[in-house]
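Lay summary. Proteins are chains of building blocks that fold into shapes, and those shapes determine what they do. In this project we predict the shape from the chain. Here is one chain we studied, written as its sequence of building blocks.
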Amino acid sequence: MKKRLFWVLPCMVLVSHQSVAENFPATLPDETNRDLTSHLIEESQYTPAVAENAETQSNHSISLEDLEKDFALFHQVFNQAVEQNLELTEALLPSYEKNPQHDPLLVLYAQSKIALKQNDTGAAVNYLRQIVDEKPDLTPSRFHLARALFADGQMDKAEEEFQRIKADKNLPEPVVQIVDQYLNEMAKQEKWHFDANLYYISDNNVNNSANLPPEKVANCGFMVDCTITYPQAEKARGVGFGLSGRKDTHIKGRYYWRVGANTYGKHYWDNKKYNDITANVSTGLVYRSAQRETVLEGYFARRIYGNNGYSKTYGVGVNNSVAMGNRNVLFTALDLSHKEHDQYQYLNGNDYAVSNTWLHRTSPKQYFTIGFDLGKSGAKDKSEAYQYATIRGSWERDWQWQIKSNFSLGLIRRNYQDINFFGNKRHDNIYYSKLTLYKKDWHIAGITPRVVASYYKNKSNQKFYSYKKHQIFLDLIKRF
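And here is the predicted shape, written in a compact code that computers can read:
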């Protein structure tokens, strides 16, 4: 017969971060619409539960009526079910609890395990806290409480319980190692975390030209030769890069203060007028539990284009992720910002954007996402201001031989607000897709190589703005 409460040696699951998806290059600038939730998915601490193997079945069946007649047998069966079969535990709990001879602590322990199964870590903490208050010297119960506090995001209280557990001189060595893993993980969460990537660019249309031929004009007016010559595609070779850092400092309970910075861009050594670099700093408040993470941040961004100052952006964003059960997560984001341009001041204005993404995991090796974005890019010149809507999806899967793939695609519709110099309002349909492949066990000095293929097409009612491009490149990723 097992003890009522016994040691469970859990595996620590460390969630790796994915790098932010590469943005397509812009010419004078098309301010690229971005999915505000992509980084939430990539940085999500959500780890879906893996279905447990089928429980060992007894060779004999026994009815609930028989158990209720023999409490000693009922207690034995229920005690074993709590440790081995939560579905049976849920079925037996009401009848067991009604029996006057029931063990209150076993009931609380069963309720805590059911709550954890339902991803309700707050309820699990409450049940386990009652056990520890009743039996403060019962170290295994304190261990389960510390784990539940960790899962619930209450790091200060979890650390306090783990330190009390380590003070137990009779603690088994394997449990000491598990406790140290938790303490080390909590310490790592308050350190700086960095992501970096680097890739080679060979772009045969860096200025996003429609490659239109010269056009004869019927009514010359003041023109001399009655011919319009359009810009042709220009080539550029260089590197794309990204570097980001973030640090969360625990305040109290489930609250943290976050400081972050990132820079990304493209540098061309043979066509420097299209160099494009953005730097961003941000700070704000984070609320984190097992089911939810909410971030309220203010930020400032500086963009350098063609080696000259291009724009400044001041903004505030709210990001939220909620786990719904073990297989679904909903990501939402709202962003409000004001942009000011160094030279092209007619582009100054306010931007608004909202993103929603649903992630569904069909198995531990595969998930799908579908999402939509709505936004508005303001400008003093209303022919440059537009509203947009995006629908997008992605599929990520782990294959044999440690191969991982991610495929994404989307459609953006832009509607400009006023007539421009072509004599009508501009409307764009943007189609894009991206495939990423890499081997998870291929590392060189901590750097992971990834093969990336991307396709981008802008189809506009004004042919001057229509173009398409595709690229295949090697992306080098490092996290530290």
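What the prediction tells us: The chain has nine helices and 16 strands.
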